[in-house]
Amino acid sequence: TDKANQEEGNNVPLIDNTLIVDISDALSEKDKVKFTVHTRTTMKNFQKSEFLVVRQHEEFIWLHDRYEEDPKYAGYIIPPPPPRPNFDASREKLQRLGEGEGTMTKEEFTKMKQELEAEYLATFKKTVAMHEVFLTRLASHSVFREDSHLHVFLEYDQDLCARPKGKLQQLGGLVKSLGNTTDQYYLNATVRDVNDFFEQQMNSLTEYHNQLKEATSRTDKMTEKHKELADSFIKISGGILQLANNDPGPLDKFLAKVSDTFERARKIESRVASDQDLKLADTLRYYMRDSQAARALLVRRLKCLVNYENANRTLEKARHKNKDIHAAEAAQSQACEQFEAISAQAKEELLDFKTRRLHAFRKSLIELAELEIKHARTQQDLLKKSVQNLRELL
Amino acid sequence: MADPVEPPPLFENVDILGDCANDEDLFVSARQEPPESYCADFHDGIDGDADLSNLSLEEDRKTEMENVPINNGGGLPDTMEHVKRQVARSPEIMLLILQVEAAGGEQFLEISITEPQKVGEGMSAYMAYRVKTKTNMPIFKKREFSVTRRFSDFLGLHDKLSEKYLKVGRIIPPAPEKSVIGMTKIKISSQSEGTPTNGNDFVERRRASLERYLKRTAQHPVLVLDPDFREFLESDVELPKATSTSALSSAGVMRLFNKVGETVNKITYKMDETDPWFEDRLTHIEALETQLRKLHANVEAMVSYRKELSHLTNGVSRSAAMLSACEDHNSLSMALSHLADTEEKVEALHLEQANTDFFILCEILKDYLGLLGSVRDAFHERTKLFQHWQHSQQMLAKKREAKAKMELTNRADKVDQAGAEVIEWEAKVERGQENFDKISKMIKMEVERFEKCRVHDFKMMFIRYLENHLNHQAQLVKYWEAFLPQAKAIA
What we know:
Oligomer: heterodimer
Helix content of chain A: over 70%
Number of helices of chain B: 10
Order of helices and strands of chain B: HHEEEHHHHHHHH
Number of strands of chain B: 3
CATH superfamily of the domain at 282-490 in chain B: Arfaptin homology (AH) domain/BAR domain
Structural class of chain A: mainly alpha
Shape of chain B: elongated
Distance between the termini of chain A: 44 Å
Number of strands of chain A: 3
Strand content of chain B: 5-15%
Structural class of chain B: mainly alpha
Helix content of chain B: 55-70%
């Protein structure tokens, strides 16, 4: 199976039975997907050692938000939440196909339908993979996996949050994220980082994230067009077959062979497009989100810095007025601790991020190249044989 | 060089230009021999069947070409395929035909069009093309020669050939289409030397289609011998400007009117068909046209997808380069840079693939749509001759009636005249039938030749297409194999 980016947490050994989570099943209903989350664990805080729950996308977001708002984890890169399952594009295409049924032959229609169903299935598998990766990162992280919210998520067999309040909650989420961006801007603009390293990291991460976003969008467009190209072979193969059927004589065998060649080439070309999507686009996409999570960490650190600087100023004022010095001193030393802790943590996380990134890109790029070579060779063989056969029919 | 095929008996089933089913270059080798020895060799070489003495060079019998009521086109005699005993009008032409036939599979005629050049500036500018010919056919003055021609010259050639040969039922390859938009872009573009880069696509497209047009015309065993065709290829002077080919000229307008009239005729006149062969053929051709049209449209779509894919791949390449630039880890940065390079190569490859799709598949399909139109034109000429013949029959009946009337009313003076008219129309009816029979035979022969060529062309088209794509895939393997070690080098 293609699990996009199996990421590891903080130096946890590969074979660790403490907490193993996977999505064993998924059901796609009208406008939602139900994921069956399957857990095996040796941890004592669970009632059983193996159990299942059914979760929907919103509950994954709920879980992510719990981690993000917990100051305990401020110094960590929180695994980015999975994107919302989106079958709109697939559904639209299927609908358009249905509308255009009259304009094509039965074979063409069947083939197009098969292609679209395969696409739908691929989208489905991807969303399952994204949700699973989110959970496995948490479950394999030595700190994250201790979290009580995670345990509730994995074990509690009732719905976690009320069904999404719909527009209102979405709006709330939108406002929150807007708030984040203005925050960042504000912070970036007014806080001079005491440590050059972090300032440079912030800048390069921002740049990196933006480039990844652009790269993801362009790769998506390219793979979509590639798929469109492959699908266009259906009509051509069909047309050539029609020619063969209506042109009895020296051409019919020949054309039938050509039609068959086109059909086989189409399948290979389709695979090329989908592999590019899986290996390149998905990797870029994931690291786009991960780099965003890394930035979020740096923003939290900057907030700590602001706190720290404010505490310093308060202490100065207190000393000046000779009032509440003790409280101010306590506050300042706490802010200092927090800041230094998060800075140290952040440094490690960034290093970890880099390692993860290297590992993931290496794996994906190697697999991408190997698949491209494999498919191109397969096409080569197909075409070579076809030409040989066709020359015999000359 | 021995003829690959056993030399056929004289004048029977001889395809002057060799079997279309041979390889693309029509002929195998060049050999120039003086005419006399040809004659002698030919005479000895034939397997006894043919005997020059069987021919009576002085025979006065008219060829199929004569007595075509609508403007005798003259021209050279027919291919020898179905002309068993019919003979050329003069000994010289006879000799010429013998020479051409004798060489059989050894003659070749290679035409290529190169060096499109923009001549002049502004709205009176035009593209000039160099037409190069290599041949060993004795009817040409030299073995290698080239001339400069412009687009309207090609149209003029086509018009001349049509005028001469369409009426007897030959299938004349259609000339490439005019393109007002394409040409206007060239005219107003500022470059005056060499190939304008803006209109590159258009110019290359046109050059290729002009080349195919000449090659196809040369494939035709009779058209290739036509003096106008020869003049087009070898006459080193500027051809008289074919003004009647301009879309806006009065001749152009007249042509439009005639076309409309003909189209109406085509639709309204229902011929009394006695030979089911023609009906069947026409149905088959119309079905073929419909399918080709659809196929052509779908291939066009594929071409545009590939071009768009190429463009989008460029976007990915540039993104990879940007990522490489802001990636601080060395080996990953290198790998991303190589990815950018690879995607750039893939982008260029997609464009090449689009060209393969276009020039090898799309354009040939389009050519055949035009050719099928030419076939239908020939069929239509036959319908016109039938109409003409029927009309003559009707007139004859009238004249006979008139004569009978005169006899009844005992008008001696009018009877003679009526009698003369009857005879006149009897002759016309006879000629009408003759011509109708001739064109029917001719069309059958032409269609047979056409079908053979079509089958061969289609086969070669697809083979070349797939071979090209085979090479493209080989390239793809190379590019990604070059990238793989870079990806592995990430540490």
